[in-house]
Design a protein that fits this description.
alpha/beta, 7-stranded mixed sheet, two-stranded antiparallel sheet, 11 helices, 11 strands
Length: 303
């Protein structure tokens, strides 16, 4: 048997997970023909078929699934080795911090303060709407709103996002006092996340826009395009917006500051998590919707 290229196992896992060479190649940042050729070389080296290839995509064979599972274990072991080595070094280097775009803008002052305190640490800020995979080392620390964090991640539940219905004052002033919320134009989440809330309120809204990111939602509502469900933490202190419906308990998402369990002994990550945890915990009254702008409290609602 010829010597195996261990990196081909990583390529195999990405291909099987994406279900197509094209999508896998985009993640791997290589051509789809190169990805396909690497898998063929691996199959020839091992003398087994690892992927089923059809007109609609690719999927792992039984042997392929077994090898992929072992490859993931190897990747996690490599990550643990890397983090153990890093923890033995001084508190310097890079922290890959991933969160939502709107949340990141709220944290910029804190991140700036951290950088002044720890100038030898570089923050690699990664903004994503979807949760990254810490098992594959896609980030060191994530800040996420979720009621179902993965069990193999470690971290802290630091608060609960409250969501109210907000609208730009300029837009609201165009309508008579007491106008039902269902008669306003609406901006809804692109993934359908807020649609169930609308059903619970008994609304059949006139939807003029959907946005697929938190910051996109905030900016659309600020621009007066429509009213929408927004996290209080993002807009509570914005005097340009009015609260049209106070937060309800069912409109809440837990906020988690998470890292992979292999990061337990990484001093750089532990320092960053402790710092950010203290700062965000102090903001709980804003996050939970208990306070808003001094000139426009969140409760009671205007309508």
């Amino acid at each position: 048997m010829h010597s195996m290229n261990w990196d081909d196992l990583r390529i195999l896992e990405v291909c099987a997970r994406n279900g197509s060479f094209l999508r896998a190649a985009q993640e791997l940042k290589m051509s789809h023909t190169s990805a396909s050729r690497r898998i063929t070389q691996l199959e020839n080296t091992l003398n087994v078929t690892l992927l089923h290839r059809t007109a609609t995509g690719i999927s792992a064979t039984r042997t392929g699934m077994s090898i992929i599972a072992q490859a993931r274990d190897m990747a996690e072991a490599a990550l643990i080795v890397q983090n153990t080595a890093e923890s033995a070094s001084n508190i310097a280097g890079t922290i890959r911090f991933e969160t939502l775009d709107a949340t990141a803008f709220n944290l910029m002052d804190y991140l700036g303060e951290f950088s002044k305190q720890y100038p030898e640490i570089e923050i690699d800020l990664r903004l994503n709407q979807e949760m990254v995979d810490l098992d594959r080392g896609e980030a060191d620390v994530v800040l996420r709103a979720t009621n179902d964090p993965k069990e193999d991640y470690v971290g802290h539940h630091i608060g609960d996002h409250a969501f109210g219905i907000f609208g730009a004052a300029d837009l609201i002033n165009q309508y008579p006092a007491g106008t039902p919320l269902s008669e306003f134009p609406w901006v809804l989440w692109g993934n359908g996340w807020s649609d169930q809330w609308m059903k619970n309120l008994g609304f059949a809204p006139h939807v003029v826009m959907r946005a697929n990111t938190a910051f996109g939602m905030v900016q659309a509502v600020r621009a007066g395009i429509g009213i929408g469900h927004l996290a209080c933490y993002s807009v509570a202190m914005d005097d340009r917006l009015l609260c049209l419906h106070a937060p309800l308990d069912e409109w809440r998402l837990q906020i988690w500051l998470l890292a992979h369990r292999s990061m337990r002994r990484n001093q750089r990550v532990r320092t960053f998590v402790k710092f950010l945890r203290q700062k965000i915990t102090a903001d709980r009254p804003l996050i939970s919707g208990k306070i808003g702008s001094p000139t426009r409290p969140l409760s009671p609602p205007l309508l």
